[in-house]
Amino acid sequence: MAYEDRVDPVVGVNFMLRVNAVIDLPLRKVHGFQEEFEYETIQQGGSNEYVEIRQKPISRVKTFQVEYYVGKEYIDTLALGTSFSIPLLLMISKKAGNFDFKNITRIYTFTGCTVISRSYGELDAERAELVVETATIAYERMIPVTFM
């Protein structure tokens, strides 16, 4: 029987997006992303009662959203319409602010990425809040990698 170790689960509070393999963008929040395939069922005819399941071509764009704070030394790395030839890396670390490979517990690699929408946080003079921007990124493929 296979045994999967769940004693030390990955904590998802220390995460960062590496853009163009150079720029590290600390994130406030990452909205859920998922990988799924679409299937169609085909009923065979005659006296045969079998149902076949076949994978359909993808009809929806796969996306994920990232929220991040705007800093003083702001470089717009996720400009609207930007397509990335280098994969984006969403890294989860055991320690806050420490994203070297001995502290990283999981990396989600997104390939074929394009920024398809941007939204800007609410500005309210009555409440002091940090400026937040949200980018929606479309991707072709996601590859999760777990480190020991």
What topology emerges from the helices and strands here?
Layout: E1 15-19, E2 23-26, E3 29-31, E4 39-43, E5 51-55, E6 62-69, E7 88-93, E8 104-111, E9 114-120, E10 132-139, E11 141-146
Antiparallel strand pairs: 1-2, 1-7, 3-6, 4-5, 6-10, 7-8, 8-11, 9-10
Number of strands: 11
The CATH topology name reads Pnp Oxidase, Chain A
Low-confidence stretches: none
Major beta-sheet overview = 5 strands, antiparallel
The overall pLDDT average reads: 83
The run of helices and strands is EEEEEEEEEEE
Integer count of domains: 1
The CATH superfamily name is Hcp1-like
Q: In the CATH classification, which architecture applies?
A: Roll
Number of helices: 0
Gyration radius from CA atoms, angstroms: 20 Å
Beta fraction of the residues?
Answer: 35-45%
CATH class: Mainly Beta
Helix % is under 10%
The coarse silhouette is elongated
Sheet with the most strands: spatial strand order: 2-1-7-8-11
Name the structural class: mainly beta
Distance between the termini: 21 Å
